[in-house]
């Protein structure tokens, strides 16, 4: 079965050809960002990137920036043609591909919000996300990939008894977060999807290799899944998947206006 990222790679290749970038030496550089550079200095300090569990990489194409979270950050320099030949079977290369895809679509102005929000904006985004979830009419909501700000906001709006959470971090699995016991994302994903009306899934499912199985389980359960964050910006655009991200920054090049 063709994976979601493989489908996006084919679409990416078409875009590169259509815009005359195939034989152009477009430099793609992915640089591991420090936590402060990635999300600033928010009031709360329990985001995974601040605890060393994840890192943000950033790809640039002609000054357009695209970011992606990963637990396997590596640096890369090459051309778009090189990126299109990367293996998509490992977290490190999937992250390079996804970040590059974000930068490419930002460069082509098909997607703009490809840079993570900073400071207290993640808290504000989480509050908006919880209200948006309530506006869907859902009574029970799932969070796939523990994000402390979003988890807290969902519990505040829905109540702990109406929130389900799964994660891959062993330190979170089995722990109680805001009154909710965190399940193992490797084994409890299908159960979560069968128990909720709406699931919010981190875009890093595209990086860690769990995305295709998760989306397949959601289809089987008939559960609406919304991906969130900057990581999934380009993939959601190409795959016409629903995405929520309410405070991300533009990754585009700021060009001076007329004098």
Note the main sheet: 7 strands, mixed
- CATH level-3 fold name of the largest domain: Rossmann fold
**Any idea what the radius of gyration is?**
18 Å
CATH architecture type of the largest domain: 3-Layer(aba) Sandwich
Question: Which regions have little confidence, pLDDT < 50, spanning 5+ residues?
Answer: 44-52, 255-259
Determine the structural class based on helices, strands and strand pairing: alpha/beta
The run of helices and strands is: HEHEEEHHHEHEEEHEHEHE
Say how many strands there are.
11
Average pLDDT over all residues: 87
Quaternary state reads single chain
Identify the strand order in the major beta sheet.
Answer: 7-8-6-5-9-10-11
| Beta-strand percent range | 15-25%
Q: What percent of residues adopt helix (DSSP H or I)? A: 25-40%
Number of domains: 2
The count of helical stretches stands at 9
**CATH domain class name of the largest domain:** Alpha Beta
How many angstroms separate the termini?
54 Å
What does this structure look like?
- With 259 residues, the protein is of the alpha/beta class.
- The protein has two domains: 104 residues, no CATH class; 124 residues, Rossmann fold (3-Layer(aba) Sandwich), CATH 3.40.50.11590.
- Helix 5 runs parallel beside helix 6 and helix 7 packs parallel to helix 8.
- The radius of gyration is 18 Å and the shape is globular.
Indicate the topology:
Elements: H1 4-18, E1 28-33, H2 35-39, E2 55-61, E3 64-70, E4 76-78, H3 80-83, H4 91-107, H5 121-135, E5 141-144, H6 148-158, E6 163-167, E7 176-177, E8 180-184, H7 189-195, E9 198-202, H8 211-221, E10 224-228, H9 233-239, E11 243-244
Helix pairs in contact: 5-6, 7-8
